[in-house]
Design brief:
The protein is of the alpha+beta class and 291 residues long. The chain is 55% helix and 21% strand. It folds into 3 domains: 79 residues, no CATH class; 101 residues, 2-Layer Sandwich (Tetrahydropterin Synthase, Chain A), CATH 3.30.479.30; 55 residues. It is rod-shaped.
Length: 291
């Protein structure tokens, strides 16, 4: 996590003013043949060096005069009285990322897991963050880690694996309620990874495989039951309708011999039952070659 910039950092503008003051002082001293201008302009340059400060567009800083807060400064250039005024750390108000981990934490169903999450947060009120929290970045880190462990204990393993987005929103709500009073808002929490012990992974894999096999057997037995019921209904239809039975037999015979070069052996009893003897004889005579 990026630490806030130290307030003692001097601005480039102050350094430039010091160089210019020293150059002017040295020039006047050489022109007047007197060292006093160098001393005077050197003191002015040192004053400007420590009095002119600069804050970036995303930075805010608090000014303390004799230890008492007098206001916020930034972004841009600002002035303070050296020795009398003191600056806090520069507060970066851009979105920050905190990596939070919870190792070997028990879920609601007593499964040890390692969870890795990312917290996106930002400082929306630098005054509150500076004056009311000693180290707000560390406070957010510890609060997020504690909230993550508590959330793991309230959820079962299958919920954490299947409902990561829901768990992230719950963590975001809990953290935002806690950090709003610090001038900090938590924008979102994303659960990156949920790791379980290798032994438990093997057991869950075997359990899932057994469940899939059970479902496959149930589907197969259901299909066989439905087929048997359809066969039973067809048998009743053929039993009371001999014509339908003959048509079905003829259709089956046609399907068997329609391929060129196929040979089908049909019992004589079946031929007589279907009344196909005469028809097959005529077909064979028609197919015989004349001598």
């Amino acid at each position: 996590m990026r630490s806030d910039r130290v307030a003692l950092k001097l601005s480039s503008v102050g350094v430039a003013l010091l160089v210019i003051s020293m150059a002017v002082g040295v020039g006047l001293s050489a022109l007047l043949n007197n060292g006093a201008p160098t001393v005077v302009f050197g003191l002015i340059g040192l004053y400007l060096l420590f009095a002119i400060r600069q804050a970036d567009q995303w930075d805010k800083v608090a000014v303390l005069r004799f230890g008492k807060y007098i206001g916020m400064r930034g972004p841009g250039l600002f002035h303070l009285i050296p020795v009398v005024d003191r600056l806090s750390r520069y507060v970066d108000q851009r979105v920050r990322v905190a990596n939070v981990t919870a190792e070997s934490t028990l879920t609601r169903d007593t499964v040890p897991v390692n969870v890795d999450a990312i917290v996106f947060w930002l400082v929306w009120n630098a005054e509150k963050a500076i004056l009311e929290v000693q180290d707000f970045a560390q406070a957010v880190q510890y609060s997020a880690q504690t909230a993550l462990r508590e959330s793991i204990g309230r959820h079962e393993l299958h919920q954490m694996v299947a409902e990561r987005e829901m768990m992230g929103k719950e963590l975001q709500r809990i953290l935002d309620e806690k950090t709003t009073g610090w001038g900090i808002t938590v924008q979102s929490v994303e659960i990156r990874d949920v790791q379980i012990p290798p032994e438990l992974q093997d057991a869950m894999s075997r359990e899932a495989q057994a469940e899939r096999e059970r479902r496959a057997r149930i589907i197969l037995s259901t299909a066989e039951t439905e087929i048997a019921e359809k066969f039973g209904q067809a048998a009743l239809t053929y039993q009371h309708n001999p014509v339908a039975m003959h048509l079905r037999a003829m259709n089956m015979l046609y399907e068997a011999i329609k391929e060129k070069g196929a040979m089908v052996i049909v019992p004589s009893s079946a031929v007589e039952t279907m009344g196909l003897g005469g028809m097959l004889g005529v077909a064979s005579m028609g197919g015989a070659k004349p001598q």
